[in-house]
Each structure stands twice: as C-alpha cells, then as structure tokens.
Design a protein that fits this description.
By secondary structure, the chain is of the alpha/beta class. The chain is built from six helices and eight strands, in the order αββββαβαβαββαα. It has helices spanning 3-28, 71-87, 101-111, 125-128, 168-174, 183-186, and strands at residues 34-36, 40-43, 46-49, 59-64, 92-97, 117-119, 141-148, 151-159.
Amino acid sequence: MKYADVNGKLADYRRQISDIRERMRETLAVVEPEEVSDYEFATFDGSVRLSQLFGDHEDLIVVHNMGVACPNCTLWADGYNGIHQHVVSRAGFVVSSPDRPGVQRKFAQSRGWKFPMVSHERSSFAADMGYATDKGGWLPGVSVFRREGDTITRVSDTGFSPGDDFCPLWHFFDMLPGGVGDWPRIAKKPPCCSDH
C-alpha cells in the first residue's frame, strides 16, 4: 500500500480515537462519584492526609506507582517531570507507591523527579482503590479525586499498561517499522506490568 494511502487510513483511525475520547469525557461527566476516606500517607517529612494533597485545588490526580521494583512505573514517572508544572496549574498531583519515604526520596533524586511522592505502605489506600493484587502485589494506574468541603470522592480511575495513553514512548514506537521491537528485552522489562 502506498504511503499516502496508509497515511490517510491512519489519520482516519486517529479521528475515530478522538471521537471515542470525546464520548469517554461525556460519560465521565455523568458518573456518580464514590466517597472515599481521608487516607493517611507517609512522606519523608512526616504523615499527610489525602485531603492535604489537593493544595488549593478541588481536584487531585494520584498515580498508583508500583515502586522502584517496576521499570515500567519508572518509565511513566520519568514522563511526569515534563508535564508537572502544567498539571499542577489545574489540579493537585502526587505519586503514591508502597516504597518507604526514604527509598522514594533517594530514587526520586536519582531520577531528577520534581513531583511529590507519598507512601501507602501502611495504608489500605491502594487496595481500596483496586490497585493491589490478590497476592499482595501492586498494580499501576491513576485515580482522580474531588474535594467538596470535608467530602472527598473518586471521580475516575484507570489502570496503566504498556501501550497506554499515559506514556508517549509507546506512541512514538508505534510509528516505527516493527513497533516496539525488542525494546522490552533491551530495557529488561520484568513481567510485573506486562499483563495489566
């Protein structure tokens, strides 16, 4: 098939994806939020409540990160630096993982991460949000919360997986001949995130 023909077909697929995203936003607008507890997290500077993570915003984005053991979660988190200043102009933003605060801080510094991190190590937060496995492991994803007075609700969430919309690397790889190729092997991707 000629380049121009393929390009036109791909442009049509992208329009369809855009239309689906619009329908998803419309569906999200009518969802009934679920009330959640004001969970307590650990940070390097002490404990903090979910309600405090909103800052001056009504909305809060919490990334469910599996911790330093997951290279894919690190890949996603590396991408947050570039958008962090833009995201926090609209909503609170924090990354939650099961790692202890000291481990988080050391790893964040080694990666040059600018965003705040909290530990849910001694909390039921990740499990209650659906981001824990039956075997005691963790799942990657994101939850969005809204605060109205003293009430906190979760308004949306979704899991992360290779190829998703939360890491632009996958979309660049999609444009290469052979797609992702043997990059997972080269990057030494473990099975931790590959089946979610």
